[in-house]
Amino acid sequence: MPTLFEKICAGEIPADIVFQDELCVCFRDIAPQAPTHLLLVPRVAIPRIAEATSNDQNLLGHMMTKVRTIAEQEGLTKNGFRLIINNGPDGGEAVPHLHIHILGGRQMLWPPG
Predict the structure, then answer these.
(1) Which SS3 state, helix, strand or coil, does residue 25 take?
(2) Which label site among 26, 28, 54, 95 has the fewest CB atoms less than 10 Å from its CB?
(3) Rounded distance, CA 76 to CA 80, Å?
(4) Distance CA 34, CA 61 (A)
(5) In terms of DSSP bridges, do strands 100-104 and 81-84 run parallel, antiparallel, or are they unpaired?
(6) C-alpha to C-alpha distance for 93 and 50, rounded to whole angstroms
(7) DSSP states of 92-108 as a string?
(8) Which neighbouring-strand residues pair with 25?
(9) Does the global pTM surpass 0.85?
(10) How far does CA 101 lie from the centroid of its chain?
């Protein structure tokens, strides 16, 4: 059964998409935790970062470099932003499809939750 994010990538579920290319899609989170809260997801379903393999290396590198493009587009590069990848229930994973949270627009605290 396709994940929520696979359905968004396929255009089956609407989302506020801010970036997309042949490998990944970035859209606004529906429950934002910061003024800017985006989710960058690969089009191919990788359940979580702990299940990524060496075959996913190019895709993961591509996604990380697209963060800069997206952050610039969203005006986050001047003051900074935070990236988060949750893994498994204890890590706060809610959807079993690898995704990178891009948070910005406010001061981030340390340590996080």
Answers:
(1) strand
(2) 54
(3) 6
(4) 25
(5) antiparallel
(6) 12
(7) T--SSS--EEEEESSPP
(8) 20, 41
(9) yes
(10) 4
- Domains for the chain: give ranges and CATH numbers: 4-104 (3.30.428.10)
Return the ∠ at Cα 67 (arms to 86 and 85), rounded to 5°.
Answer: 5
Handedness of CA 53, 19, 28, 12 (dihedral sign): negative
Q: Kindly state the tokens that stand for 90.
A: 């204890």
Contact of 26 with 19, CB cutoff 8 Å: yes
Query: If you search the block for the tokens 């359905």, which residue do you land on?
Result: 7
pLDDT tens for each residue of 5-34: 999 999 999 999 999 999 999 999 999 999
Provide the token pair at 48.
């979580």
- Judged by DSSP in three states, 28 sits in strand
Q: Report pLDDT digits (tens) over 76-98.
A: 999 999 999 999 999 999 999 99
Contact 66, 24 (CB under 8 A): yes
Which positions are catalytic?
99
